[in-house]
Amino acid sequence: MENNSKKFYERRSIRLPDYDYTQESLYYITLCCQHRLKLFGEVVNSELMPNAAGKMVEEEWKALTTRFPEIRLHAYVVMPNHFHAIVEMCSTEQMDSKNEKSPTLGNVIAGFKSIVTVNYIRGVKELGWQPFDKKVWQRNYWEHIIRNDQAYQKITDYIIENPIYWKEDDLYT
């Protein structure tokens, strides 16, 4: 009997194999809007002008520490069609004593993308926000493990200055 179900293609993971994404570390992340749609505002004269959706993204980012007390949020910026941030995965000793599983970086990002999507859909339906094609976010996210203070400072500067260089950004379309 022939299998007529959709063929699923194996996707190669962009995560480091055998790396424990629950361990204490700093991560630089980038999330992009599907089709690079400018859903979160605009940059005018090198200054970010978030719309209501961009403000919602920022609020949900700040609220993540309530849902995931084992993280700390560092520098971040909501750009018109993407989001940059530094996330710190902190000690999970208290959680381990309760036999709870520590969240991975992927769990944190998935939670953030999910709540932003739910709220964005509500904004489209109730507030007239710009519609989108099936997904707010691209399927995955880019991540870099920050290994020293020099890298941390360079990435922090990049995040803070991102609106200044918007028109030269690879994500500017």
Top keywords for this entry?
single chain, about 170 residues, alpha+beta, four-stranded antiparallel sheet, two-stranded antiparallel ribbon, about 20% strand, globular
Describe the structure.
This protein is α+β, with helices and mostly antiparallel strands and 173 residues long. It has one domain: Transposase IS200-like (Alpha-Beta Plaits, 2-Layer Sandwich), CATH 3.30.70.1290. Helix content is 33%, strand content 21%. The strands form two sheets. It has a four-stranded antiparallel sheet with strand order 4-5-1-6, sandwiched between helices. Helix 1 (52-67) runs antiparallel to helix 3. Residues 22-162 form the Transposase IS200-like domain. InterPro entries: RAYT_transposase, Transposase_17, Transposase_17_sf. GO terms for molecular function: sequence-specific DNA binding; transposase activity.
